[in-house]
Design a protein that fits this description.
214 residues, alpha/beta, 5 helices, disordered N terminus
């Protein structure tokens, strides 16, 4: 019995030791994050997403086409650009919360003062159904009709934001694996269908081939 306990304890120590070694071997490629903490896994973590989102937003706000569109609308209507969220595709092995990623970008764009986001329209259905649900109360005698929004009051978007997160895994000669994540986004003028801005951030990591990239 004592021998069995000893073997079990030894096996557990080896298991956790192996996990720690595997985790410590994970690193960013090309010193992408010099001066910050080492990655905890081969998967995308909070810091990766936060950093990529901020860089994409900064790139978007520097776009001369977007700036021109914003200035024209402000001069004509005195209002910022209206943005709708379109399709975001997760082409990775991770179960990413796309809404969490998009929310970071939305907050940054709203804080820039150049955008407001519509929640009445989104690819796949409205984000907030209240806008349309309240309009179903027209002619309902239980409600004061003066407090119900009139027809033609919902604002259509000027732009749509779409994106995709792609994962590519490549075996390395030293027995490790390299995992590249491509975070891509496009900003489209919904009137013309033309993309006013496109951006891509690449996050590359390397680590043990035994480590799962999630």
């Amino acid at each position: 019995m004592k021998k069995l306990v000893l073997l079990s304890t030894t096996a557990a120590m080896l298991f956790f030791s192996g996990c720690a070694t595997s985790s410590s071997q994970v690193r960013y490629i090309n010193h992408e994050k010099a001066g910050t903490s080492a990655p905890v896994s081969l998967g995308l973590d909070y810091e990766d997403i936060n950093r990529a989102a901020q860089k994409l937003v900064n790139s978007m706000l520097k776009s001369p086409y977007l700036d021109r569109m914003y200035r024209i609308k402000m001069r004509k209507e005195g209002k910022p650009l209206v943005l709708m969220i379109s399709d975001f595709t997760n082409d990775t092995t991770q179960r990413l919360d796309i809404d969490q990623i998009v929310k970071k970008i939305r907050i940054a764009l709203l804080n820039s003062g150049k955008f407001i986001v519509t929640t009445a329209l989104r690819a796949g259905g409205p984000e907030d159904r209240a806008t349309m649900e309240l309009r179903k109360l027209r002619k309902n005698k239980e409600f004061n009709q003066k407090t119900i929004a009139k027809q033609g009051t919902v604002i259509a978007p000027d732009l749509s934001l779409s994106g995709k997160i792609i994962q590519r895994t490549t075996p390395l000669p030293n027995g490790e694996q390299r995992v590249d994540y491509y975070i891509q986004m496009s900003l489209t003028d919904v009137t013309s269908g033309l993309a006013f801005w496109e951006g891509e951030e690449v996050i590359s990591k390397a680590g043990s081939s035994k480590a799962a990239p999630w």
